[in-house]
Inverse folding.
C-alpha cells in the first residue's frame, strides 16, 4: 500500500477527475467516478478495474485504508479543501475512486433458463435509471437493456441513485432494432407498456420468458415497440393523471413478474 499527497488543484490527477464529471470526459478516457465506500466496494466486487483512489486526509486514515481490498493500489491523499473541489457529493465518506468503464454486448448477456429483462427506450433522467437499477437488483432481473440512450450510463447521478446497483445488474446498451432481434432469437415475450389498446398488467402471464418495455415519461413508448409487442399492458390509473413516474411503473410490473413466478 502506498500513499501519495496531492496539494495542488492543478495536479493532473485532479484535472482528470474534473473531466470525468462530464460525458465528453468519460467517453474520452473510458473512465468514470464512484464515490463512497459502498459504491466503490460494489464496483470492485463486480469486477470493474480500478484506476486510482483519492481520500480526504481528515476523514480516512492509514488504519482505515488497510481495511480496503485494494492492497497494491496507490492512495492519493488530499486535504479537505482540495477534496471538496473534486467531490460530486457532500457525503462521499472521504473517498473517491476512478474505474475503467465497461459495457456488456447483447450477445454476452448471461440469461437464466426463464429470462426476465427490463427494456428502457431512450430513458432521459439519470435518477430514474438509477432507481430502476435498484428495482432490477431487488427482483434479480437477468439484465437491463437501454435502447437508443439519451444519458450516459456512468453519469454520477445514475451511480448515486442506483446505490451501486449499476455494478450488480448486467446492463447492455443497444438500439431498438438490435434488441428486437435479440429478444426474438431468444424467444422472449415482449410486453410493451402503453395506455391504448392494452390489457391490465395483472391479467397477463409473465411466467414464461419476459421482457418488459418502457418508454419515456414525455413521449411514452414508440410505435416500434407497440407494433412488435406480444401484448400491450397498462397499470390502472383511477385518478386525474394518466401515468406514473417510469421508475415506479417498472417497480409495479417487476414485482408482478416476481409474484407470478413465485
Amino acid at each position: 500500500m502506498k500513499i501519495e499527497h496531492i496539494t495542488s488543484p492543478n495536479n493532473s490527477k485532479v484535472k482528470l477527475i474534473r473531466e470525468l464529471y462530464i460525458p465528453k470526459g468519460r467517453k474520452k478516457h473510458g473512465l468514470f467516478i464512484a464515490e463512497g465506500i459502498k459504491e466503490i466496494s460494489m464496483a470492485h466486487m463486480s469486477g470493474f478495474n480500478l484506476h486510482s483512489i483519492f481520500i480526504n486526509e481528515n476523514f480516512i486514515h492509514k488504519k482505515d485504508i488497510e481495511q480496503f481490498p485494494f492492497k497494491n493500489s496507490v492512495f492519493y491523499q488530499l486535504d479537505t479543501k482540495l477534496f471538496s473541489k473534486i467531490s460530486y457529493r457532500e457525503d462521499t465518506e472521504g473517498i473517491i475512486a476512478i474505474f475503467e468503464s465497461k459495457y456488456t454486448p447483447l450477445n454476452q448477456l448471461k440469461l437464466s433458463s426463464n429470462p426476465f429483462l427490463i427494456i428502457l427506450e431512450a430513458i432521459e433522467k439519470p435518477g430514474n435509471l438509477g432507481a430502476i437499477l435498484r428495482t432490477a437488483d431487488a427482483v434479480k432481473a437477468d439484465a437491463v437493456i437501454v435502447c437508443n440512450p439519451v444519458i450516459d450510463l456512468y453519469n454520477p447521478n445514475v451511480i448515486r441513485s442506483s446505490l451501486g446497483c449499476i455494478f450488480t445488474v448486467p446492463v447492455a446498451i443497444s438500439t431498438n432494432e438490435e434488441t428486437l432481434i435479440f429478444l426474438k432469437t431468444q424467444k422472449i415475450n415482449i410486453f410493451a407498456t402503453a395506455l391504448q389498446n392494452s390489457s391490465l398488467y395483472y391479467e397477463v402471464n409473465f411466467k414464461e420468458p419476459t421482457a418488459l418495455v418502457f418508454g419515456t415519461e414525455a413521449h411514452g413508448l414508440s410505435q416500434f415497440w407497440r407494433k412488435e409487442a406480444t401484448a400491450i399492458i397498462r397499470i390502472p390509473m383511477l385518478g386525474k393523471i394518466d401515468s406514473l413516474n417510469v421508475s415506479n411503473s417498472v417497480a409495479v410490473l417487476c414485482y408482478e413478474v416476481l409474484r407470478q413466478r413465485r
Summary: The domain at 106-261 is CATH 3.40.1280.10 (Alpha/beta knot). The longest strand covers residues 50-56. The chain has two domains: 2-100, 106-261.
